[in-house]
Structures are given as C-alpha cells and as structure tokens.
Fold this protein.
Amino acid sequence: MLGGFSYSVKGASHEKRGIVCQDASAYMSGNGFAAAVVADGHGGKKYFRSNVGSQCAVEAALETIELFYADPDEFDLRFKADHKRIIKRIEKYAIMLWNDKVLHHLNTHPVTSEELKNFTYDEIEDIPPESYYGTTMVCAVMARGYSWGFQIGDGSLVAVFEDGETSMIMEYEESNPANITSSLCNANAFDMFASFYTEKRPVAIIVSTDGLYTSFGSDFDFLDYHTIIAGQLVNPETFLGSLQNNMKKRSHYGTEDDISVSCIYDKILALSQQDIINNKIAENKRLAAERKAKLLNK
C-alpha cells in the first residue's frame, strides 16, 4: 500500500522582494504505483512566468505517468523488459505535454505590458515564448517490485531502503555546457534528462528542489534528514506539521530559497522496518557527533 505527501514553501528572499513562489510539488497514488514530483522555476529575467511553468511541469509529469499506467499489469511487463526505452518515451511525452500546457497558458494569458516593461523590443523578440516558463523537474515512481525516476536540471532524489541505507540514487550530470541552464524549455531538453531504475525495495523516495539541499552543511546531514523523515512515516499525520515548519525555518534562516518536497512511501514496509530505520537514525546521530568532535579538535 503506497502513500505520499508534498509541500512547497516560499523562500525568504522571495518574500523580501515580493516575488511569488517559483516552486511546485505534487504526488499521486494510483493503481499499482505512486509518483512524486517537484519543479523549480528559474529565477532569471527572461523566465518571468516560471512559477506557471513549474506548476505545468508537475501536472505534465503526473498526467504522463498516469497515462502510461492505464493498464498497470501490461505496463509492468513491458517496463521490466526494457525500462530504458520506456523511460525515454515517458520523458519525451512529458516534455510535449509541458509545452502544450505552457503554450495554452500563453494563448489564454497574453504577455502583459507590466511583464514587458523590463525588456527592449529586440530583447523580447529574441526569447522563445516557452522560455518565459523555464523550469527544472525531478520525478520518482514506486511500483510493484521496482522503482524509477527522471530529472532535468538541479534538485535531489533520495531513496531510503528497507535495510536503512539512504542514498542519492540518481547522480545527476548535465549533458550541456556549464553556461546553459538545464530546463524543460530548452530545444534539446530531451537530451538533458538523467534517470534511474532499481528493483531494490525502498521504504520511501523523496524528491526536493535545490533549496532543501543547499540548506544543509554537508551531504551527511542532508541524507540523515531523509532517514529521519522515513522514521516518521508510520504516523505521518503527526509529523507533517513539524516538517512544514522546519522547511520554512530552513528557507528563512538558511538558503532563503523556495523549498519543495514530495515523498512517496510503502506504508507496510515503513511499519515493518521501523526498528531498523530508528536504529539507523541513532547511528547517524552518533556519527554526526563524532564528525563534529573531530572538527572541534582540529
């Protein structure tokens, strides 16, 4: 039995400057699968509708996954036989759907004079309309006996497995020059995706925008945070409020960026592995104390 949750908070820097939250997040629990997705709209001048773009991204991802899982039994068979090819098909469809969504928004909401005031005529003419909506996207899916996901741009995907191991199982490497932002709005977006597939059983998979990662001092602390979340999934309703408050604090007193988190998890596995996860949390605290002591003694 699969469950999930998602939450986005506006960054402190955006509140100070009167800017809308450019993140979006969502999850879905369907027939034989659960999916989590986050998107982070770009902050540059030409991406002035990126908050809409990020919302379109999470919608496009979930609608695409739901479509492909219309017959979950058939999909499972085909996916396990050739997951790389099918993930590529899903990525391509999600890009197409995202483009449809943002262009529909543009047609129904033409660019306003207020939005144009920061551009010269030549500048706005040089910007492809889909770039107004530029955004990243990170998506994860848990299904029957396997998990997978894909990503374009920055952000994180962390899995907590039944043995207590917590890892960023998809190492993201941009396949484009350093001065080009990986984005759904790029003409070659299809070539910028990274993906993963595993048959190792996760208790939970958590995707987040880069505002969460940058609020931590080390990868150790970042991963330990996810293990703690997994340890609370037996009674998620009792900790979601504190998680949301913690995200707000991390934005206001740390990164100052928007933060989005979306989580999917196996409810039965979270219960059966609770002792193992809690033991891992205790071990992580001990190791963190040792690392801190070493730094103080240098």
Remarks:
- DSSP finds eleven helices and ten strands in the chain.
